Amino acid sequence: MAIEKIFKDDASEEKGERARMASFVGAIAITDLVKTTLGPKGMDKILQSTGRGHGITVTNDGATILKSLHIDNPAAKVLIDISKVQDDEVGDGTTSVVVLAGELLREAEKLVAAKIHPMTIISGYRMAAECARNALLQRVVDNKENAEKFKSDLMKIAMTTLSSKILSQDKQHFAQLTVDAVMRLKGSTNLEAIQIIKKPGGSLKDSFLDEGFILDKKIGLGQPKRIENAKILVANTAMDTDKVKIYGARVRVDSMSKVAEIEGAEKEKMREKVQKIIAHGINCFVNRQLIYNFPEELFADAGILAIEHADFDGIERLALVTGGEIASTFDNPESVKLGHCKLIEEIMIGEDKLIHFSGVEMGQACTIVLRGASHHVLDEAERSLHDALCVLSQTVNDTRVLLGGGWPEMVMAKEVDELARKTPGKKSHAIEAFSRALVAIPTIISDNAGLDSADLVAQLRAAHHEGCNAGIDVITGSVGDMAELGISESFKVKQAVLLSATEAAEMILRVDEIITCAPRQREDRM
Amino acid sequence: MAAVTASQPRSSKTESYVDNKRKEDIRQANIKAARSVADAVRTSLGPKGMDKMISTANGEVIITNDGATILNKMEVLQPAAKMLVELSKSQDAAAGDGTTTVVVIAGALLKQCLTLLSHGIHPTVISDSLHKASSKAVDVLTAMAVPLELSDRESLIKSASTSLNSKVVSQYSTLLAPLAVDSVLSVVDPAKPDMVDLRDIKIVKKHGGTVDDTQLVKGLVFDKKASHAAGGPTRMENAKIAVIQFQISPPKTDIEQSIVVSDYTQMDRILKEERNYILGMIKKIKATGCNVLLIQKSILRDAVTDLSLHYLAKAKIMVIKDVERDDIEFITKTLNCLPIANIEHFRAEKLGHAELVEEVSLGDAKIVKVTGIKDMGRTTTVLVRGSNQLVLDEAERSLHDALCVVRCLVSKRFLIAGGGAPEIELSRQLGAWSKVLHGMEGYCVRSFAEALEVIPYTLAENAGLNPIAIVTELRNRHAQGEINAGINVRKGQITNILEENVVQPLLVSTSAITLATECVRMILKIDDIVNVR
């Protein structure tokens, strides 16, 4: 006898073929959405927010597009997750990973239709991925020993990453900028020390790297605008009055003079607090909260530069770069660590005045000031720059470098094809499919550039038969030598793309049932 | 094996064909939307351009021909159209003038792009060629420009009046142009000669009179009355001015407080105490010799009470109350004084000095003027008058544009001819350049060159001239080497525009072209609109 009902109302269950179909369709739809952004001639998307304000974002960054999508399909969510992970781990290749996973699934769909068991496909894919990885490992170039060469590798990687972004026109300039910034980090991947400030106006070319820290705030009235050998106290404290924070506390008095006394006492408390702060022997005080008129004047009298309302990010970073600690009580000056810097001064960028801290304790810190026509341009530029910085900082740690422009994919495809020929049994179909999925990436790159992909990929395949440095040169629209053109990619990024895409595809393939739980009942508010 | 690989790209080709159809549609829709925005402001270009009346959602009416203002108030929703609005804002930020021009150029470029796209040229190719063309255009413009010295006041005035001529207030350009020049020059810091902070120029609008009465004040103007409540002085010579950030009123604590009155005599005592308290404060103020008090507005409590005003009046101290906190910096900079946040810190060295502070009647309204300030900071105040609110607002916007023009000249000291001359010259030179380029690039650059003709065309059209006749004539003259031939709208013919004193800063033209190109390239590269959270 059949069980009548296992699930709650509204919960649904899809099994076997249907479940697999649903995940294939979802994953492939996501892939098709982002694949036009791939490569140096990839297109941008407008993201139109349906929320309040209908704000728009123009972007070409896979992770940003996917992050903001409304998605209901579980398989599509898996793809979005891998793109997020890729973003967190290596920062670049967020589109590639989704496209590769999607292509793998597209191939798998065909195999499943040809009655090959998903488990067979999975084991084939695993073998292929392992083989592809080894193929890459054999071809990597490592210039760790040669600092000069390594730097030029970094430049090439930065240029390659940036060439698919909005900054492509000025990629030389920005590549130099990012390489300089990353070299300053001396191997740490702490990108917090690189601050990016966006200021509308001017053009992208006017962006620059500043060796120091810039805070987008104003200096209080009547205070020195320039301080040398500054001792900085970074604090997060209320500078209005220390109120009794018990609800309902109130003062009951019987005459006006007493009220005046209390007011005086409040002022006195404030003055004491300021005195304590001054007693630290500082000449610059940065507070996260507002500094009211009264303490501001006290600071001005003491010749201390006080900056109010520095945003949270701002003070944490300032504390980091100047080597100070964020203080909130001031009773024991000896236990508070002060920050130091050589010079604080007011500078003007565009129309705005900013405060510039130079000669900071932590030599790694620097600031990139981005200029551009509008907020859209600036936001997108920041995203692109962030990608480049991520990749570079990863490359500094893992110095292995590959060529770009579809070269790694073709190398892998060739090896995987060899493997397919050697492997007996049904698995070889899956391995062959893996190689086809790899070839899809150069195909998409050339399609996006409006080139004849069928012709180009065939040429590329022929060229790779001998094993050379051929890749797609989208600028001239032909097959070119990637080493000569200086198109490089980080091994770490490629490896992450390969492995996480295979894993994601595997995970989705394993699914044979989708159970959608009943949505939680909303309580009726009527 | 080979058969499989061959079939695979072909299958993806058919798929991408379907996709491309949709992408083409989105691109077309974007371009159309952006162009309709450009068309909306097109008629307001040039000295004979028309104005737009905008009635905003809250019933306010604005009459203007400032491109940035029109677009800002239009509240467009289509993303590409929004980008055009942003474009005009950027131009406003970068150069301050030419906000209509930039949108019109972007519109014309988009129109050309549409044709190029329909010929099957890949958008990225167009985008790259546009970038090349625009950087070449900047070179051409720079070569055309005439260098300028800041001491050349005449030329500065000429360019300011070119900007003003296209506004409602054009008949006052002889008055406003020198005014704009003088005010900008007076705030230029000799230490940093390239920087002008327009925030150092304060524009005070006052209803009444006509634009003719607009004046430059060497000093400060408050759009407020001096406090009359208790008959205090309204004119003070040899003023010692204090800017205070505390309140002269009964004390108030931050902790909630209440005074318990238990009998009648206590009440009397409290009243007396209040009086003594205030009197004590005023005595301290008087002791420093201060005779003009500027009081910052406070939201927590009354800045002054009737009682304190009374005592201040008795102490012969002039009071101006409700000064905004944002203005304090400007005021202290101008007066060369320090704000005082506590009565205990009221010291003579924190005061500012001025020869005269007086309340002046302007029609039925009154303002307070501070003149003859000792060691005045590098600031200026402009008092704008106008017969009604609409004229007043438009005059302010026009003056802002004129100030920006002068500022542009200070930061980049080159002048260029106006009246469509640079655009037609660009069009000619780029057209010639396109002939030596190869392939698609040459084709795209030629389209860019053609698009630039929209400026002289629109200028002529708006002036009621025959645009085709004028543009062809203009082309002809430029081909003969008269690079400064432009449309003289007043005479309705083509003349050497430099001789007619129609000049504009180079920065306005270059930034209009680079910004418009950047925006168009961005629109071209978009192939999808995705709805997100």
TrEMBL record, chain B:
Amino acid composition bias (Polar residues), ranges on this chain: 1-11
Gene3D superfamilies attached to this UniProt entry: GroEL, GroEL-like equatorial domain, TCP-1-like chaperonin intermediate domain
Region of interest: Disordered: 1-22
Protein name: T-complex protein 1 subunit delta
Xref: PANTHER family: CHAPERONIN
PROSITE patterns in UniProt: TCP1_1, TCP1_3
GO MF, one annotated term: ATP-dependent protein folding chaperone
SUPFAM superfamilies per the UniProt record, alphabetical: GroEL apical domain-like (SSF52029), GroEL equatorial domain-like (SSF48592), GroEL-intermediate domain like (SSF54849)
Keywords: ATP-binding, Chaperone, Cytoplasm, Nucleotide-binding
